[in-house]
């Protein structure tokens, strides 16, 4: 008795069986030699599949849209597109990486941005752990001009207290630009 594949469901059945026990299809074999040849082919395919080799045309692995080689025009498009994406990411990083205090000089800023930086400096001087201070990014929502060279800042700072816990402290700071690259603290409430 030899095992062969059913002509309908391709499951293994006995060559002596009249019908397939799996699907009920009749076991019609023209001759025994053909059954043995089919069995050998089946066993060979099973061995090849068990070691990970797929039998396709010219023994090449099947390709889909993601694994096929790129054509020349597609490769150039992919490289240019990738370069544009990298450039955009770098531009966004440069635009948003620094705080106003890290890339502006308060002595040359006679505006809302200068008032923001100076108020940050005055607040940091009064903190327990000034190196942990985190101010909100940007100044436009927090600074208002109240006079010719006078500015009021209503904002907050997150910083560690004496116990090491981070707390948020709201503050109001009023500063004036007095000329000669100097600022005066008029009022600070924390």
**Percentage of residues in DSSP E strands:** 15-25%
Tell me roughly what share of residues is in helical segments.
Answer: 25-40%
Largest sheet report: 4 strands, antiparallel
Structural shape = rod-shaped
Taken together, the total number of domains comes to: 2
Task: Compute the number of strand runs.
Answer: 6
DSSP helical segment count? 4
Which strands sit side by side, in order, in the main sheet? 3-4-5-6
Radius of gyration based on Cα positions: 39 Å
Low-confidence stretches: 100-108
**Which structural class do you get from the secondary structure elements?**
alpha+beta
CATH topology term of the largest domain: Nuclear Transport Factor 2, Chain: A
CATH class of the largest domain: Alpha Beta
The overall pLDDT, averaged over residues, is 80
Describe this structure in words.
By secondary structure, this protein is of the alpha+beta class. It has four helices and six strands, in the order E-E-H-H-H-H-E-E-E-E. The chain has a four-stranded antiparallel β-sheet, with helices on one face. A two-stranded antiparallel sheet has the order 1-2. A hairpin with a 6-residue loop joins strand 1 and strand 2. The longest helix is centred in the middle third of the chain and has 26 residues, at 72-97.
Name its key features.
Nuclear Transport Factor 2, Chain: A, four-stranded antiparallel beta sheet, 2 domains, two-stranded antiparallel ribbon, 4 helices, rod-shaped, 190 residues, 6 strands, 33% helix, alpha+beta
């Amino acid at each position: 008795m030899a095992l062969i594949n059913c002509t309908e469901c391709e499951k293994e059945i006995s060559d002596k069986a009249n019908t397939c026990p799996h699907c009920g299809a009749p076991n019609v074999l023209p001759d025994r030699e053909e059954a043995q040849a089919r069995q050998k082919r089946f066993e060979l395919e099973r061995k090849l599949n068990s070691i990970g080799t797929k039998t396709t045309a010219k023994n090449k692995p099947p390709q889909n849209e993601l694994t096929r080689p790129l054509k020349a025009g597609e490769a150039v498009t992919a490289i240019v597109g990738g370069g544009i994406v990298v450039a955009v990411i770098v531009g966004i990083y440069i635009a948003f990486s620094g705080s106003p205090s890290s890339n502006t000089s308060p002595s040359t800023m006679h505006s809302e941005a200068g008032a923001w930086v100076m108020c940050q400096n005055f607040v940091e001087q009064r903190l327990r752990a000034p190196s942990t201070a985190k101010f909100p990014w940007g100044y436009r929502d927090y600074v208002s001009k109240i006079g010719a060279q006078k500015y009021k800042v209503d904002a907050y700072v997150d910083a560690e207290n004496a116990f090491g816990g981070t707390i948020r402290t709201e503050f109001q700071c009023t500063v004036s630009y007095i000329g000669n690259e100097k600022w005066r603290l008029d009022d600070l409430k924390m």
